[in-house]
Amino acid sequence: DNYITTLKILIIGESGVGKSSLMLRFTNDEFDSEQALTIGVDFKSKIIEIDNNCAKLAIWDTAGQERFRTLTPSYYRDAQGAILVYDVNKRSTFQKLDSWLHELEIYGTRPNMVKMVVGNKIDVQSREVSREEGFKFAKRHRTLFLETSAKTSEGVKEAFEEVVRKILET
Ligand code: GTP
Ligand code: MG
């Protein structure tokens, strides 16, 4: 059949924004309201079919908390895609996106890595960052953009699929 290669996709962003929850929703269609924070690196894979192509995604999820982060260079090495997550209800996590983009520039080894900015937790009614603001940030940095909820599933599948689609066409 038309089996393709493995694509490495990273999820990065501040602690508590929902990186592990987005991965769990996408790979297992599950949500845990008491999701434990990540220590070191977590990893899941999933085979997806997109536009009649199969791709195996290797999804890497790292700790947002600095003290729990290890092996940073190998985490970033050879990644084709990166999802940068913030919490739409917590402006400080949005303000940190610049430094996460900077990490990608330092450690990323592929010149045309596909990037997507994701505003998560849109199910919570205490928004501090508007959709418009998120969209403008993404546009300025030439990344894809979507808002999601790992809790309700809204936008989650679309986010991963858009990244994969873009990788496959570049
Ligand atoms: P670190 O591993 O510390 O970097 O955090 P993380 O970014 O992986 O966050 P995690 O997925 O552990 O989620 C943190 C908390 O937010 C957990 O209690 C989740 O259940 C909750 N959470 C994650 N996504 C959502 C969401 O879309 N909506 C709501 N309401 N809660 C969410
Ligand atoms: Mg985590």
Task: Tell me about this structure.
There is one protein chain. With 170 residues, the chain is of the alpha/beta class. The protein has helices spanning 19-28, 72-76, 91-95, 97-107, 131-140, 156-169, and strands at 3-13, 41-50, 53-62, 81-87, 114-120, 144-147. Strand 2 (41-50) and strand 3 (53-62) form a beta hairpin. The mean pLDDT is 93. Bound molecules: guanosine-5'-triphosphate (GTP) and magnesium ion (MG). Guanosine-5'-triphosphate binds next to helix 1. It catalyses: GTP + H2O = GDP + phosphate + H(+). One of its GO terms (molecular function) is GTP binding. Belongs to the small GTPase superfamily. Rab family. Its EC number is 3.6.5.2. Keywords: GTP-binding, Hydrolase, Lipoprotein, Nucleotide-binding, Prenylation, Protein transport, Transport.
Number of helices: 6
The largest sheet is: 6 strands, mixed
> How many angstroms does the end-to-end distance come to?
22 Å
Going by helix content, strand content and strand pairing, the class is: alpha/beta
SSE order in H/E notation? Answer: EHEEHEHHEHEH
